[in-house]
Design a protein that fits this description.
- The protein contains 17 helices and 26 strands.
- The protein is of the alpha+beta class.
- It folds into two domains: about 260 residues, no CATH class; about 350 residues, 3-Layer(aba) Sandwich (Beta-lactamase), CATH 3.40.710.
- The strands form eight sheets. The chain has a six-stranded antiparallel sheet, with helices on both faces.
- Helix 7 crosses helix 13.
- The longest helix has 15 residues.
- The relative contact order is 0.10.
- The model has no long low-confidence stretch (mean pLDDT about 95).
Length: about 625
């Protein structure tokens, strides 16, 4: 595959190269018009490759651009690239149209950014198209500093590629945006890439990032013409060529942004299932595949046992070839399914007569002087039953402290990350209970964190060390571990947790650089929050565990279920009355908005629901 590119050519020069390269079988993959609209300059990237029929225009005003859209769409083409320069009333456009674009698409131009604090038509349009299941294909920023405008093209996104838009980042701040985005996980631990980067004449950047995969890539911005040519040569020595090339500015003040890669076509995802295949149970594979493909999920597991005997343990991968194939023994972040292990640890202390259900928590830990006197009445069992006085979902409630660890560390002036007892002290001294202990059942992550501090106080051991020694190791459950907050601490056999969220680190309190939600940007330190949400294990280990322990509550196996959801994880475990235990885990909770109900249907208890695992269990004779 051959590439070609150029910058800083006139309209006539661009047309001459267009004619020559088109005749040689090249096609435009990036186009940029920039500079003074009375004498615009062009930058373009080309690849020699076959494909659908295409057409292009350049040097046209807004009216003629719209006429081109009308003409070519009437003949079955759709816009795929758009660029513009100049003030709104005198803008010059360049665009590329391609035939056979599948699915819905949308193209708009002249969209205003809006005044500071006012409505932003471009972002509103972008949100509308995202809500319809489209993805930004191309965008350009033009106009003036006092009247910024956008033109953009959105295409169908059937595989639910994840993406972010940053519509107006000043040149000085764009590097921080770039640094944050490329940390986000996907195909690899750092997998989001800049998909398109446009810049205005005064170097304000409009950039989108997405988690599909083109292999090795590099990106540079803020380059002078000379610096760009030097970078182009360096990248060519590594076998990389411009697949995105945009300019902004006039003459010597012009600056360029470029994306380099060895290919411009994204890798297609491949379906793989591992673990022993059971012919009578292939329907479960089909259900998982259907769900994962429609929801863009790369990794999952499903395990089913009856009377403690494993009937099915399968791992599924719907991902690009560079992605590690998921195995049945791989660990997944559990989110709230971690809580069932804490309940078992506490029950073991009850059984050993080292703790009582009525033990009052804060006095046991040595706390005194609460903000709310009722806090001293909270018992261990109330924490397990979610009746301890804390309500994560209450309107107007302060917050869930397990996802507020940076703020707590700052409020306590710690100078470093919080511990379990720091969080407990903060809640004890600052928080008024939402209701009296022993009252209604209201979900509380913090209650389980506090209970894990009790385990440590009573045993003199780290919570997980006690859990492992007293509960897991005797049962041969070696696939359970505490998930590291940081990516570097997660082993290769732990599924990559995927989420598009970013936030400030609860570990590095001095840093204001955003980090991925799955690596602490959600404000949770997994090692501190191991009991409520920070464990990792396989679906098959969950199934083995709930054969002898309650999925919800404490004690032995009982008909119950537990669901977990946190950035980078959706998990579920259920024990049924007929002796069947099953669990399913996914490495994301980022579903298409309209498909959230599909996940709820998948894990629903009602066996009459089509598409549910319970429906299939009811129909499979080999298990029941």
């Amino acid at each position: 595959m051959k590439f070609d590119s150029y910058i800083d050519v006139t309209g006539a020069e661009h047309q001459a190269r267009f004619t020559k390269l088109s005749e040689q079988g090249y096609r435009l993959i990036s186009i940029s018009v920039y500079g003074n609209p009375s004498s615009p300059r062009y930058a373009a990237a080309w690849v020699q490759r076959g494909g659908p029929a295409w057409q292009a225009v350049h040097g046209v005003d807004a009216t003629k651009y719209q006429s081109a859209v009308d003409k070519w769409t009437a003949e079955g083409y759709a816009p795929v690239l758009v660029s513009a320069t100049g003030a709104f009333a005198h803008a010059v456009f360049a665009a590329v149209f391609e035939k056979g674009v599948k699915g819905e698409w949308q193209a708009r131009h002249g969209l205003p950014a809006g005044p500071a604090g006012g409505p932003d038509a471009f972002q509103q349009q972008n949100a509308l198209e995202r809500g319809k299941g489209l993805i930004l294909r191309s965008a350009t920023i033009y106009g003036t500093a006092s009247d910024r405008r956008y033109a953009a093209v959105w295409h169908s996104n059937p595989t639910f590629v994840k993406w972010h838009l940053h519509p107006a980042e000043p040149g000085a701040g764009y590097q921080a945006v770039f640094d944050a985005e490329v940390q986000l996980p996907g195909v690899l631990l750092s997998a989001y890439r800049p998909a398109q980067v446009a810049l205005s004449e005064d170097q304000v950047y409009c950039a989108s990032f997405r988690d599909d995969f083109v292999g090795e890539w590099a990106a540079s911005h803020g380059l002078s013409a000379t610096a760009y040519e030097n970078e182009r040569r360096r990248q060519a020595e590594k076998g990389r060529y411009p697949i995105g090339l945009q300019g902004g500015g006039v003459g010597a003040r012009a600056r360029f942004a470029a994306i380099f890669a060895k290919q411009d076509v994204t890798a297609e995802r491949v379906w793989t299932a591992t673990g022993t295949a059971i012919p009578e149970l292939t329907g479960f594979d089909g259900t998982m595949k259907s769900f994962m493909v429609s929801h863009g999920v790369r990794a999952a597991q499903l395990a089913i046992a009856r009377e403690g005997v494993m009937q099915l343990s399968r791992a599924y991968t719907w991902a690009e070839p560079a992605y590690r194939i998921t195995q049945p023994s791989d660990r997944f972040l559990l989110a709230s399914c971690s809580k069932m292990f804490l309940a078992a640890a506490v029950q073991s202390l009850y059984d050993a007569k080292k703790l009582q259900t009525t033990t009052k928590v804060y006095p046991l830990l040595g706390f005194s002087g609460p903000a709310d006197a009722r806090s001293d009445e909270i018992t261990v069992q109330q924490l397990l039953d979610h009746t301890g006085g804390y309500d994560d979902g209450k309107t107007g409630s302060q917050y869930d402290p397990t996802y507020s660890m940076r703020q707590i560390a700052e409020a306590l002036n710690l100078g470093g990350p919080v511990t379990k007892l720091d969080v407990a002290r903060y809640m004890y001294e600052k928080y008024n209970l939402d209701f009296a202990p022993g009252g209604p059942e209201k979900y509380s992550n913090y209650g389980y964190l506090l209970a894990s501090a009790v385990v440590e106080h009573v045993t003199g051991q780290d919570y997980f060390a006690y859990l492992n020694g007293a509960v897991l190791a005797p049962a041969g459950l070696g696939e359970v571990a505490v998930s590291s907050t940081l990516a570097a601490g997660r082993p290769r056999d732990q599924a990559i947790a995927e989420d598009p969220g970013l936030g400030l680190s609860p570990l590095d309190l001095k840093s204001t650089a955003p980090v991925p939600a799955v690596y602490g940007g959600d404000q949770e330190i997994k090692e501190v929050s191991a009991a409520p949400a920070g464990l990792a294990c396989s679906a098959q280990a969950m199934v083995r565990f709930i054969h002898t322990h309650a999925a919800w509550g404490n004690g032995g196996r009982m008909v119950s279920a537990r669901e977990g959801s946190t950035p980078g994880a959706s998990t579920f475990a259920r024990s049924n009355a007929d002796g069947v235990d099953w669990a399913v885990v996914f490495n994301t909770r980022d579903w298409p908005r309209e498909d959230a109900a599909t996940y709820k249907r998948l894990i629903a208890a009602d066996p009459s629901l089509p598409g549910s695992i319970e429906r299939q269990l009811a129909d499979v004779k080999v298990i029941r």
